[in-house]
């Protein structure tokens, strides 16, 4: 493995950390409805637990309501129960074979909880990025130790890896700040 391979690999993994953060932040509740909120919900389907999206069509009715339409009529009660029992604090209502999930307005206290959650997700992503930086720097040191790279190459690559890390941490901060702003908007 060369220094270029290490840098490319590190940047790819850091990009994956950012994608994971985006996915995790999409599940943090804001005042608006978002079908991704229901991604974590699993429903019992013929003896096994499957994600809600595999047994029903999840879409937006309006800015404050998510509609869930099970593909099989006998699944409506199970889907409704799974949504109600999730830790999201949602209260679904059945309209025949369509389930409406209205988003309750968030209190100030709940908004602050959600911003803490968003910050925590951001901090976890920063830790992951810093760990990737450490691993990359150790990989470069190993190449120097094995005399496959010079110490000058090591200094240069450590500086470049730090720039990549700084770029990704700034992106994480921007994502978290945007999510906090989204959560606090009334």
From TrEMBL:
What do the Gene Ontology cellular component annotations say?
cytosol
Q: Which GO terms describe its biological process?
A: cytoplasmic translational termination
Q: From which domain of life does this come?
A: Bacteria
GO terms for MF: ribosomal large subunit binding
Cite the InterPro entries for this sequence.
Ribosome_recyc_fac (IPR002661), Ribosome_recyc_fac_dom (IPR023584), RRF_sf (IPR036191)
* Keyword entries, A-Z: Cytoplasm, Protein biosynthesis
Start and end of every Ribosome recycling factor domain?
21-184
Q: Return the similarity comment.
A: Belongs to the RRF family.
Q: What does this protein do?
A: Responsible for the release of ribosomes from messenger RNA at the termination of protein biosynthesis. May increase the efficiency of translation by recycling ribosomes from one round of translation to another.
Q: Which PANTHER family match?
A: MITOCHONDRIAL RIBOSOME RECYCLING FACTOR PSEUDO 1 (PTHR20982:SF3), RIBOSOME RECYCLING FACTOR (PTHR20982)
Q: What is this protein called?
A: Ribosome-recycling factor
What is the species of this protein? Answer: Comamonas testosteroni (Pseudomonas testosteroni)
């Amino acid at each position: 493995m060369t220094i270029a391979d290490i840098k490319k690999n590190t940047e790819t993994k850091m990009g994956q950390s950012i994608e994971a953060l985006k996915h995790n932040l999409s599940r943090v509740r804001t005042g608006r409805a978002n079908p991704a909120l229901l991604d974590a919900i699993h429903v019992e389907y013929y003896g096994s637990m499957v994600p809600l999206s595999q047994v029903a069509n999840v879409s937006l009715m309006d800015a404050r309501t998510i509609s869930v339409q099970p593909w099989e009529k006998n699944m409506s009660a199970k889907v409704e129960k799974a949504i109600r029992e999730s830790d999201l604090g949602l209260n679904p209502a059945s309209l025949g074979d369509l389930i409406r999930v209205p988003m309750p307005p968030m209190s100030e206290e709940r908004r602050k909880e959600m911003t803490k959650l968003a910050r925590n997700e951001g901090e976890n992503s920063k830790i992951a990025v810093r760990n990737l930086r450490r691993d990359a720097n150790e990989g470069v040191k190993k190449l120097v130790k094995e005399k496959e790279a010079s110490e000058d190459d090591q200094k240069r690559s450590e500086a470049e890896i730090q720039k990549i890390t700084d770029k990704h941490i700034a992106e994480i901060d921007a994502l978290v700040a945007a999510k906090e702003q989204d959560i606090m908007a009334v």
